[in-house]
Structure formats: structure tokens, C-alpha cells
Amino acid sequence: MRKVALLVLLLAACLAIAAPAQARLKWDLPSAGVTHASDGMGLTNGSLSLHRVYASRHWMLDTFTIYGTQYTWTRPADSAFLKPGWTFESVVTCASCHSSIAPGGSTSDPNYPALYETLRLDDAEADGMASTTGQDAICEKCHDLVNGTTWSNAVHSSTQHRGAEGQCIMCHTQLPHGSGLPRMLGYAQDPSPYSSAAGGLQAIARQNYTPTSWRKRDCYSSCHGSGPGANPWPSGGSLAGIVRDTNNTPIPGATVRLWSGATTTTAVDGTYRLDNLGAGYSKIWVTAPGYTTHYVTLPITAGSITQLDATLDLVP
User: Fold this and answer.
1) How far is CA 228 from CA 68, 206, 222, 233, 284, in A?
2) What global pTM score does this model have?
3) FRET label pair with 220: which of 43, 54, 188, 242, CA 20 to 30 Å apart?
């Protein structure tokens, strides 16, 4: 009975610690427990790719709550932007795009050898896409942006968004999974690889959209310069907290490092903060000479501060 009571107390303590961090997240999205490639639970071809999604949600969302207000981005019909066999609920795994995957490097699908970054919109192609290298690109495996002779939405049908100027990464993230913004969109000023290309998307107006209601003034980019100005969707996220020892004494000079390579050290009072981090799940290490390493995986959320306080034990 003592062991059971102790376990209950430990669980309650963990929940008490976790709750404040979750309360700081600005995005309010449906929860779903899934295993994916960046959650620290292993990297295999069976892991979910985080494609088309926010965090670990593997379906294409159409409602988003940010800073307390809900916005709707109505999905187009599946047939308007997907090839037969795929729906907005389809699960995309690492194997959907890679022939093999392992920490440190992955191999692309041999049927789609062109780099994702070379993909662009193209009138001459039946599915509305082509690669600058002339090879088939991976997005063509699932996506068809032309429904008969009609483009799937007003954004892709814009003259400025096709041909030589129509590179996907002018608006979408340079890594096609793990983004914190809807529809795999990414700001040029976001940290790589969750940014669009330099000179690409700068801001998106926070409002409701249907597939054909996008307007030039809703987006700001170097291509046309107009944009929402005020009230844009947030860009990037932050991580902050304090590092202490088991006596609750702050540890100055401790290192906080993310999987992306972003690094900082704690101040004299043990506090730290990292800004403009790529949104999505990240592995985080907290280290200090003479102490054991604190390791955790947390979601970094666009427009919010994720709180991570760490307690380090002395090395035995």
C-alpha cells in the first residue's frame, strides 16, 4: 500500500509540474497520442512524419484557436488537392516519402528523386507541379493541385505563384514536416528548417478563410510587399526557465541545447531564455559540469513561451 501511495503522489507531482507549461501554449488544438519521428521515442519508417500538421496531429486541421480566438481555414475537397487513395485524414509515415530512415540521414523515395526544395507550380503539368531539375518531386506522390482544368484554390492559381516564381518553399517550410503553422506554411524569418525561403512569406493575417477567399493583402512577402501589417499569425516560439540543483540553488553557466543546435547558458540566477525557435517537438538537453544531464522532449509552439525548469543532480 505504501508503494501504491508513493506512486500516486509522484504522479500528482508530475502533473502539477507539467500543467503550467501546457497552460502557456497559445495554440489550442485537439489532442492525439501518436508516435512520431521527433518525439524522442525512436526513429523508424513506421514513425509519423508530422506532415501537413501541427505538432503530433496527423490529420489536416481546419480550425485553430490562437490568443483565445478561433479561426477556420476550410479544407478544399480531397479531390481538389489530393490524388486518389489519399484523404485529409490519411496518416503519413516516414516510409511514405523515404525508402530508409535513420538518425543522421534518410534516403529519398527512388521514384521521386528530385529534392523537395526544387518543387514549383507549373501550368504545363497535369497535377500543377514540377521540379526545377525536371525530375518527379515527392509532393506529386500525393498532391494534385488541378481538378480537371481548375486550380484547387485561389492562392495556387495566382499568376505570381506559378512558373519560375512559384517555388513551394517561397511560402511553405523548407522541411516538409514538423511545422508549427497551419498548412505547412512558414515565415522566412523563422529558424531553419521551419522557415520559407529567404524573401518568402513574412506574415499571414489572422482571420477565417475558405479555399478561394485568400487575398493578396492577407499575406506579406517580398514578392508583392502588401500584407496584414497588424494582427499577423505568430512566428516561432520561445523556451525559458531556471536551472537549479537538488538544494534548490540556481546553477549559473549551465548549458541548454536543443536538437536544432540552438544553445544558451544560464545567468547568475540560473535563468535562461531562447527565442525564435522552430515550432514543433524538440529534444532538449540541460548540462553543467559536475552534474548529471537533464533530457526531455517538449513542444515548441509558435507565438508562445514553453517553460522548462530543470533540477540537476550531482554526479555520484
Assistant:
1) 19, 8, 13, 10, 34
2) 0.67
3) 54
